[in-house]
Design goal:
Layout: H1 11-20, E1 30-33, H2 40-45, E2 51-55, H3 59-70, H4 78-86, H5 94-99, H6 112-130, H7 136-152, H8 169-172, E3 190-192, H9 196-199, E4 205-210, H10 219-222, H11 224-231, H12 257-267, E5 270-278, H13 285-293, E6 296-306, E7 322-332
Helix pairs in contact: 3-7, 3-11, 6-7
The chain binds S-adenosylmethionine.
S-adenosylmethionine is lined by residues 3, 5-7, 35-38, 40-41, 56-58, 61, 195-196, 211-213, 219, 249, 251.
C-alpha cells in the first residue's frame, strides 16, 4: 500500500540500526511497533523475535495488523474463500451508492463495477462471520485482502482526501482480491487498536519503535474510505469527498505533540526506544533530542530520503523531493 510515512523503503536501514543496538539475541526480544500503519516494520521483525506487539489507532490499520502480525499459523481454506469472493457478481450497497461511479452521491472513488464488487465481497465476508462459517483469523485475512486489493483500484492520486475527475487506467481495471499473505511463526503476537499514549501503560518489552505522524495530515481523513470499507456501517457522509467523523491524532497538532511525545517516552516500559521522524515534522530534531536525553543515553542516525509522492508538488526550501529521515535512539535509564 502506498501509505503516507510508510517505512517500506527505509526498512533495511531501520532494521540494521535496530539490530546493531541490541545487547540480547533477537530471538529473546519483545518488539513493539506502536504506530504501525501498514505494519511493515513489525512484519520484518516478526520471524526473528520472541513477540511482536503491533498497534495503530485506525481500524483499517488494525485489520492489516491483525492479519499480517496476528495471524501466524496456516489458514487451510483461505484459497477456497478467496476464489468464492472473486467469483461473486457485483451488488449495489453503501460503497456503490456513496463512493462509486453513477452512485447517488457522484463521488468517483471507484468505477461502478468495482464499487459494486466491493459491496458484494464485504457483505459476503460479514455473512460468513455471522454464520460462523469462518473464524476470526480467516475473517481478518479476507478483510485485509479486500482492503489491499481495493486500494490498488481506487481512483485517487494517492490518498482518499480527494478523487479524480475521470477514472484513471489503474482504477478501470477489474477488482481482483489477492491474498494478503502473512509470515508463519511458532510464537504468537499481540495486536491492538488503541491510542498509543493509553496503551503504553499496559505493555512492556525490549524494543519500542515509534513512527507517529510527522505533520498535520490526519490519517483518519486521508484513508477514510479504507475505514468505511473495513467497518461497513452506514453513516451520513459529509461533503464532496464523503468524509465520516474521524479520529484526530494529537501527534498531528503543533500545540499538543510535544507534551504527548514526552509523556510517551516517560511512561514507556522498554529498555531501547527508536523514533522515526523527519526534518519537516512538527517537532525539530533538537527538541526531540532534548526530550529523549532526559530519559537515558541518546544518539541520532540520519539518512536522506525520497519524499512520499503526494508531497512532490509542494514548494519547500531544500532540494526537491528529498527529505532527511531521522532515527532517534534512546537507551532508557
Ligand atoms: C507515519 S504512520 C506509520 C507508518 C508505518 N510505520 C508504516 O511503515 O506503514 C503513523 C501512524 O500512526 C497512527 N496514529 C496516529 N495517532 C496515533 C495515536 N495517538 N495512537 C496510535 N496510532 C496513531 C496513524 O494512524 C498512522 O498509521
Amino acid at each position: 500500500m502506498n501509505y503516507i510515512g510508510s517505512k517500506h523503503k527505509l526498512s533495511p536501514w531501520i532494521n540494521e540500526i535496530i539490530r546493531s543496538q541490541l545487547n540480547q539475541p533477537l530471538c529473546d526480544i519483545v518488539f513493539c511497533d506502536l504506530f504501525a500503519g501498514t505494519g511493515i516494520v513489525g512484519r520484518n521483525f516478526k520471524p526473528f523475535v520472541k513477540k511482536v506487539i503491533s498497534n495503530d489507532v485506525e481500524f483499517y490499520s488494525y485489520v492489516l495488523l491483525r492479519n499480517y502480525i496476528g495471524n501466524h499459523q496456516e489458514i487451510p481454506d483461505k484459497k477456497f474463500y478467496l476464489e468464492k469472493l472473486n467469483a461473486l457478481p457485483g451488488k449495489k450497497g453503501f460503497i456503490a451508492e456513496e463512493y462509486g461511479e453513477n452512485g447517488k452521491a457522484n463521488r468517483l472513488y471507484f468505477s461502478e463495477k468495482n464499487a459494486q464488487k466491493i459491496d458484494a465481497v464485504r457483505q459476503q465476508i460479514e455473512i460468513w462471520k455471522k454464520t460462523k462459517e469462518i473464524n476470526e483469523n480467516l475473517y481478518y485475512f479476507l478483510l485485509a485482502s479486500l482492503l489491499e486489493s481495493a486500494d490498488k483500484i481506487a481512483n485517487t492520486a494517492s490518498v482518499y482526501g480527494a478523487f479524480l475527475k475521470k477514472i484513471k487506467s489503474s482504477a478501470a481495471k477489474e477488482l481482483k482480491i489477492s491474498a494478503a499473505n502473512f509470515s508463519k511463526t511458532i510464537n504468537s503476537h499481540q495486536v491492538f487498536q488503541e491510542d498509543a499514549n493509553l496503551l503504553i501503560h499496559k505493555i512492556k518489552g525490549d524494543v519500542l519503535y515509534l513512527d507517529p505522524p510527522y505533520n498535520a495530515r490526519q490519517y483518519g481523513a486521508n484513508y477514510h474510505l479504507l475505514n468505511t470499507i473495513a467497518e461497513y456501517k452506514k453513516f451520513t457522509p459529509r461533503g464532496k469527498t464523503g468524509l465520516p467523523d474521524y479520529y484526530k491524532s494529537m501527534y498531528c497538532r503543533k500545540n499538543q505533540v510535544v507534551e504527548q511525545f514526552e509523556e510517551l517516552i516517560k511512561n514507556a516500559n522498554f529498555s531501547t526506544i527508536f523514533l522515526s521522524y523527519n526534518n519537516e515534522g512538527l517537532m525539530s530534531a533538537k527538541l526531540i533530542k532534548e526530550i529523549m536525553f532526559k530519559y537515558g543515553k541518546y544518539h541520532l542516525e540520519t539518512k536522506t530520503y525520497q519524499r512520499f509522492k503526494a508531497d512532490k508538488s509542494e514548494n519547500r526550501n531544500h532540494k526537491a523531493n528529498e527529505t532527511i529521515e531521522f532515527l532517534h535512539c534512546l537507551k532508557k535509564n
